[in-house]
Amino acid sequence: MDPVDPAALAAARAVLDGARRVAVLTGAGISTDSGIPDFRGPNGIWTRDPAAEKRSTIDHYLSDTTVREAAWRIRLESEMWAAEPNAGHHAVADLARQGRLHTLVTQNIDGLHSAAGLSADHVVEVHGTVHAVECLGCGDRGPMGPVLERVRQGEPDPPCAACGGILKSATIMFGQALVPADLARAERAAIEADVLVAVGTSLNVYPVAGMVPLALELGRPVVIVNAEPTPFDDAVTVVVRGSASDVLPLLFAPRSDGGSEMSTN
Ligand code: NAD
User: Fold this and answer.
1) Which end of the chain is more exposed for a tag (fewer CB within 10 A), N or C?
2) Residues 6+ away with beta carbon under 8 Å from 74
3) Does the beta carbon of 44 lie inside 6 Å of ligand 1?
4) Which residues of the chain register pLDDT less than 50?
5) Fold (CATH) for 1-36+85-127+178-265
6) Among residues 86, 130, 72, which one has the least CA distance to residue 245?
7) Where in the sequence numbering do the catalytic residues fall?
8) Binding site membership of 41 for ligand 1 (Cβ less than 6 Å)
9) What is the pTM of this model?
10) For residue range 196-255, what is the model confidence (pLDDT) as tens digits?
11) Which atom of ligand 1 is nearest to the CA of 127?
12) d(CA 101, CA 34)
């Protein structure tokens, strides 16, 4: 990736230095430097295999055993289990320690923001998490580990231990509704924060991408940190082109005047 443009970084720092409460929206791009491919970047899962996007729908998952068996095989081999937070995730956690993080809204399902030390009251995982399973019959939830072990032991599509229903990771597939309380927290973050920083997201997935136009309508500064162009680049305050793990530690370093404020989130 090209070196970060110092002028863009300085402009973004100036925006951040003036902010007491920062909302951060992250997407798959913040985790690529932890070894987890994104969907739509040049090396993305869907860029390489467009059919994979079609398979990620709840109707296919419910109606086709072979889709579920493939999903469990893919989960078993996922790079997410071994992934560690990178400097980008740690920089967001550091922003929280400075008392300047309003809310971290993530589209990611990998749990790496929590692994970096962010507490649940700071994190909204709008697309759920791979670290839990849920039953599509009775709604029972539990940790992913024991169910993956059942797959490893030879159950290709393990049913719910409580009711025999279909299990899946506790993530939101296409065709599934998002959790209204999570969406409300995301919207509140865009409304209440002094600045919104969107990181590693193509801003193609709604309604979460709608945080950006919402913040702009309210006259809030918006900073985009992304490896590639997004549909909002011309509308926002500053775009910093580069890798999240390079840019965020510089962007979220303590304010130049050493000031800090308590978050009211
Ligand atoms: P996306 O794949 O649509 O876009 C990712 C963006 O990040 C791209 O524009 C790419 O150029 C950029 N990018 C890649 N590496 C980067 C880096 N190191 N630094 C900065 N930018 C980088 O991802 P999205 O917008 O999050 O939407 C896709 C959906 O995919 C989300 O709903 C999410 O749930 C899911 N997803 C999650 C993970 C994960 O949990 N890590 C991984 C893949 C997909």
Assistant:
1) N
2) none
3) yes
4) 260-265
5) Rossmann fold (3.40.50)
6) 86
7) 127
8) yes
9) 0.92
10) 999 999 999 999 999 999 999 999 999 999 999 999 999 999 999 999 999 999 999 997
11) 34
12) 22
